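Hi R.,

As promised on Friday, here is the backbone we talked about, encoded as structure tokens. Could you run it through your design pipeline when you get a chance and send me back a sequence?
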């Protein structure tokens, strides 16, 4: 799985909630080589000035401490082997007037379902099978001569 980017795209005019590029739900494989999640404010978004991530649980699935200051971009790396966990958090965002509003997305972190290591294992196994068959074929051919 690739690194994830969650962009704040704006505010839904009907609900007043954040519009997020991931729809408020992101899935991450904790055994992937690429375990970074980046939150940012889309350049087209004029309503949101800054934000802070606020964990609703005591578990921190990231290698780094979750920043406690408002910013326009946050990048965190999921701990290798973390999960399974649904990290419940809020994005508390400030508008131009400084008013703070929460939004409540979820990130699902799961242990590897194979991924890159599974792929490499299958390739290595296929190579050994081919070598074994080749050895048997040539050995049989030599014994006939």
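Update: got your reply. Pasting your designed sequence below so it's all in one thread:
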């Amino acid at each position: 799985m690739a690194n994830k980017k969650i962009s704040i795209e704006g505010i839904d005019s009907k609900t007043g909630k954040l519009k997020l590029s991931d729809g408020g739900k992101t899935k991450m494989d904790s055994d992937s080589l690429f375990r970074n999640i980046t939150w940012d404010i889309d350049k087209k978004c004029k309503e949101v000035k800054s934000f802070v991530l606020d964990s609703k649980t005591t578990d921190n699935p990231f290698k780094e401490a979750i920043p406690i200051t408002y910013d326009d971009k946050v990048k965190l790396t999921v701990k290798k082997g973390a999960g399974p966990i649904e990290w419940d958090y809020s994005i508390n965002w400030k508008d131009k007037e400084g008013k703070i509003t929460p939004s409540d997305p979820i990130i699902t972190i799961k242990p590897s379902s194979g991924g890159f290591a599974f792929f490499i294992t299958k390739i290595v196994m296929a190579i050994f099978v081919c070598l074994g068959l080749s050895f048997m074929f040539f050995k049989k051919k030599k014994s006939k001569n």
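One thing I noticed while checking it: The chain has a mean pLDDT of 85.

Thanks again,
M.
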